[in-house]
Amino acid sequence: MNDLVKKLLKGYSKELRNHALEADRNQRPPEIILNDPHFKPLQIYKTPPKYWDGFKLENGEKWYGNKSIDSVVFTEEICYGDPTLYLSLPGPSLAGTLVETLGSVEQQDTFFEYFIKNVEWSAFCLTEPSTGTDATSIQTNIKKTSKGYILNGHKRFIANGSAAKWFLVFAKTVNSTTASATNAVHIEALMVYHPKHNENLYAFPDQMMGQRAARLSQIHFNDLKLTEENILGNHLPPLKRGFRGCLKTLINIRPTTAAMAIGTARAVIDYLKENLTLDPNEEILLSKMEWDLQRARLIAYKAAYDVDHGDYSPKYSSMSKQYACRLLTNVTKEGTRIAGSQIGDHPLLEKWMRDARLIEFMSGSSNVHRREVGNHIRLSSATL
Questions:
Q1: 121 φ, ψ (degrees, to nearest 5)
Q2: What does the pLDDT look like over 281-323, one tens digit per residue?
Q3: Between the CA of residue 200 and those of 147, 178, 228, what are the distances in Å?
């Protein structure tokens, strides 16, 4: 089945690449990708099987891609077409992973059925201007009142934030009398539907050099009134939602972020081989990078395999993201050097160079992941 899945995804990948430069110029996905039913499966990927019919393979079987290893395969192939169009696709996206994991039946039905019926975006709101993706230090807060909850805070670098209708927001609970933040255990994930709360929710895109079509945005919540229904997993005890869900989701998505880097690096390498004249040393260099690419893929597969089998240790997930992003940085640096003054004649290559820089900061920077891996090795050594 894997060969059939990759063959299907390669067709989509090629089509997306044909629209990549148009999306970069217009800073939004092309209308054909949004409105052509052919692309609907790409949009609602990350939707549980009970809500849709899945991808239809050549042999008649259906593929839903609902495992972590599936996400790695899917992401690499689609990002080989174009990483920004992958990130800018409408649908449940990353928020869907958490809703499926923690949401009540009612919350899942409301969320996923909305995207089945509508071509709209969701936004996963964790990153903040001063704390990045460190969930234990977020400043966005939610305070309980006699009439419900009040949400205040500022998120930044949120993909599709200015276009989203659904926001999945991480916020720290605060004491209603002192407004002091409680500890990291008391973090809630909130489902916010923009049209219902548009008076106190402000979203606008930042001007970015890369990933332009993904419309990375700033989002402000100013005394936004919510109810118990907005708390994701409100049917669960507090210790089994919020912070726990955030950590599991981040570990879950790191192999996928690694796959973004792998797919983009593979695209750059193949482009250089097919469109530029290389000297023997450059051919050897690209061959070595292809070996590194395979190594990065195997680490991502291992990390995804662990997640699929209930092992949420950060060791391999952090290793996969850090290694793949380091590889992508090297590939784009050497690609720029090889292209030299000709890079202006290769706008797609130039675009990927810009896009690659932002992948480094998704799901935590490489320094964060080096620390995670180092801590795991240190703790493992201490038990020997």
A1: -110, 155
A2: 999 999 999 999 999 999 999 999 999 998 877 788 888 999 9
A3: 17, 23, 18
Q: How far is CA 145 from CA 181, 224, 227, 237, in A?
A: 15, 12, 10, 19
The closest of 218, 249, 238, 206 to 142, measured between CA atoms, is: 238
Q: How many CB atoms lie within 10 A of CB 215?
A: 26
Which of 232, 238, 239 lies closest to 98 in space, CA to CA? 232
Task: At 39, list the tokens.
Answer: 């692309």
Element (H, E) at 3: helix 2-18
d(CA 266, CA 78): 11
Q: pTM, whole model, 2 decimals?
A: 0.91
Residue 337 CB partners (closer than 8 Å, separation 6+): none
| Stretch 147-155: mean pLDDT | 94
Cβ atoms of 74 and 42 within 8 Å: the answer is no
Establish how many alpha carbons lie within 13 A of residue 242's alpha carbon, considering only the half-sphere containing its beta carbon.
Answer: 21
Tell me the torsion sign for CA atoms 8, 11, 13, 16: negative
For residue 205, pLDDT over 90 is answered with yes
Displacement of CA 352 from its chain's centroid (Å)? 17
Burial of 132 (0-12, 13-18, 19+ CB in 10 A): middle
Select from 357, 71, 15 the least CA-distant residue to 216. 357
Pairing label, strands 141-145, 164-174: parallel
CA 301/CA 320 separation, integer angstroms: 9
Coil, strand or helix: which one is 156? strand
Residue 231's pLDDT is 94
DSSP string, 371-382: HHHHHHHHHHHH
Q: 10 burial class (0-12, 13-18, 19+ CB within 10 angstroms)?
A: middle
Both tokens of 370, joined, read 């080096």
pLDDT tens-digit map of 352-365: 999 998 888 876 66
- Would you list the DSSP string of 237-296? -GGGSHHHHHHHHHHHHHHHHHHHHHHHHHHHHHHHHHHS---HHHHHHHHHHHHHHHHH
Mean pLDDT of the chain: 89
